[in-house]
Amino acid sequence: MAVVSTPPTLERALPVMDNAEVLRIRNDFPVLNQLVNGQPLVYLDSGATSQNPLSVIEAEQEFYEQRNAAVHRGAHHLAVEATEVFEDARQTIADFIGADYAETIWTSNATEGLNLISYALSNAGLWAAQGRGDAGLKELALNPGDEIVVTEMEHHANLIPWQELAFRTGATLRYIPIDDAGSLRMDLAGGIIGSRTRVLAFTHASNVLGTITPVAELVGLARKAGALVVLDACQSAPHLPLDVKGLDVDFAVFSGHKMLAPTGIGVLYGKQELLDILPPFLTGGSMITTVTMERAEYLPAPQRFEAGTQRISQAVALAAAANYLTETGLDRIHQWEAGLGQRMVAGLESIPGIRVLGPAAGQERIGLAAFDVEGVHAHDVGQFLDSKGIAVRVGHHCAQPLHRRLGLTATTRASAYLYNTTHDVDQFLDAVAGVRAYFRA
pTM of this prediction? Predict the structure, then answer.
């Protein structure tokens, strides 16, 4: 089976990735060298959580062994060193996404980042009504009659915070629908994003469909409407070069655990002029200038949004993960994964009784494929594959409205990363081909 791939970019003078290189990369990931149910592990669930290379594991361990202390709070040697590596990690991530240092906020995950934006915007209305804060807050406040626009393919984390923001402010939530094939109805987008739109929030790449959304076109519509743009980059930051300034989004979020880093660390990017006037989401220590018994004054970003003890070791490990991806070459990783995604889709489409969601073989997608097996529940499919050592995700993938629109309650999803080979994909396809016969569907 031929590997279909996207053309390589000229950004790095490195050879195209191949199976031999991927096998060398796999040696950096200890967890992949094990048997599951007596079979070599084939890990195809990186869309949920990726695995960690030794360099990332060692970076976090080294912090605890050599520099463990609270940041921004002490003058002793360990505290100074901890603060330095913590803020160096911020600069590394800022460079990784094309942002400025002060525009890079640590969060626990992307979900927290989206909630941070949502609550900061509703607090903007409260502050503006009390004459508190910057005069520009009035322009950010949402009111009845205003509209928030999302898409029908969003992860719950990029839907529910906006539902709740609409509830708190009286704004109306609207969405750009998808068609029967799962494609975004861009022919309708211009009629949905309009003069009342204050926020447009959408995924860069769908965690179910594998679709890469037309960011430039959507941003253009938002700019015409004067709306803020929020980008969910959870499925793009780990897999393709990300330039938040080049994309001209106002905010972007992603999670470390999907890009080789530990759990418990995420990133919020925001334009400096917005972050410096938005009210904070969490309040407490380390994010203030002056506190009296009656009120507090807050630091500018990034500390403005980082109350309390921070995720120091996780941030250091995330920076190590970003360095690992940068050294490998995100353009090369994207090309390799796109080929694996095409291989998965083409193979699945050739199996009777399989329905693949999202773009058909030959059309652009990231390296994942969600599918339905006629007559067999997704959870049974997942258990069957697990019996053969193949790890996939099953369920609605935190996208119930999307599944409901396509007439499904659950699907099975295989998602590849830089440590997967074409042989992994072929083993997966061979196993899927036997599902219906095993269950006598």
Answer: 0.95
In this prediction, residues 164-180 reach a mean pLDDT of: 97
Question: Please, are residues 182 and 357 in contact by the beta-carbon 8 Å criterion?
Answer: yes
Lowest mean pLDDT, pick from 105-114, 126-135, 185-194: 126-135
Residues in the chain: 441
**pLDDT, tens only, 316-337:** 999 999 999 999 999 999 999 9
- At 10, the pLDDT band (50, 70, 90 cuts) reads very low
Domain with CATH 3.40.640.10 in the chain: 67-326
Residue 381 phi/psi, 5-degree rounding, is -60, -45
d(CA 15, CA 277): 45
CATH number of 19-53+329-438, picked from 3.40.120.10, 3.90.1150.10, 3.30.1020.10, 3.90.1300.10: 3.90.1150.10
Amino acid, single-letter form, for residue 109: N
List, as one string, the DSSP characters of 97-141: HT--GGGEEEESSHHHHHHHHHHHHHHHHHHHHTT-S-TTHHHH-
Element (H, E) at 359: none
Q: How far apart are CA 349 and CA 285, in angstroms?
A: 55
Backbone angles phi, psi at 255, to 5 degrees: -115, 140
Q: Where exactly does CATH 3.90.1150.10 map onto the chain? A: 19-53+329-438
Catalytic residues: 398
In this structure, what token pair is assigned to residue 232?
């969910």
CATH number of 67-326: 3.40.640.10
* Number of C-beta neighbours around residue 59 at 10 A: 24
CA distance 205 to 236: 6
Rg from Cα positions in the chain: 22
Q: Tens digits of per-residue pLDDT, 398-427?
A: 999 999 999 999 999 999 999 999 999 999
Nearest to 183 by CA among 158, 210, 202: 210
- 196 close to 215: Cβ distance less than 8 angstroms: no
Q: Which residue has 């179910």 as its token pair?
A: 208
**Would you tell me how many other CB atoms lie within 10 Å of the CB of residue 114?**
27
Q: What is the pLDDT of residues 24-51, one digit of tens each?
A: 999 999 999 999 999 999 999 999 999 9
One-letter amino acid at 246 equals G
Measured CA to CA, the distance from residue 49 to residue 255 in angstroms comes to 10
Which of 408, 419, 343 lies closest to 381 in space, CA to CA? 408
Tokens at residue 331, please? 């353009």
